[in-house]
Design a protein that fits this description.
Elements lengths: L1 H20 L11 H24 L5 E2 L9 E2 H13 L3 H24 L10
Antiparallel strand pairs: 1-2
Length: 124
């Protein structure tokens, strides 16, 4: 039950932050550039929230992302690259990387939940 309260609190925080982050500060471009930026900000915020939850259970995975390194890297490094891509104006790459972080952080959480009561098995 304790885990459910953490998730609920995290999701409420994400929604509050996302609501603040999605407030446009200027009018959108005629090609809709502002909308893309807002969507990307939300993807990064969601990835950060998912990663924080995974880290709270020591369930952060390392994954292989060829655009970063040929060896597995922590999800936090991929998230940092997503944030850098956003700052550099590469919205498509930032969203792609943020989605990778969210996906694998959620899988790590799923694994942590499934194995929370794991114990050794010794056949007789």
């Amino acid at each position: 039950m304790f885990f459910g309260h953490k998730i609920l609190a995290s999701m409420a925080t994400v929604l509050i932050i996302a609501g603040c982050a999605s407030q446009p500060t200027s009018s959108p471009d005629k090609d809709g550039g502002q909308l893309v930026e807002i969507k990307e900000n939300l993807a990064i915020l969601q990835a950060q929230a998912d990663l924080d939850q995974a880290r709270s259970l020591n369930a952060e995975w390392m994954v292989r992302e060829e655009t970063i390194h040929h060896n597995p890297v922590p999800l936090g490094e991929i998230l940092a690259r997503a944030q850098q891509a956003h700052q550099d104006g590469d919205e498509a790459e930032a969203i792609r990387l943020a989605r990778i972080v969210s996906r694998f952080a959620r899988l790590g959480l799923e694994q942590a939940k499934a194995q929370s009561n794991a114990s050794p098995y010794y056949p007789q």
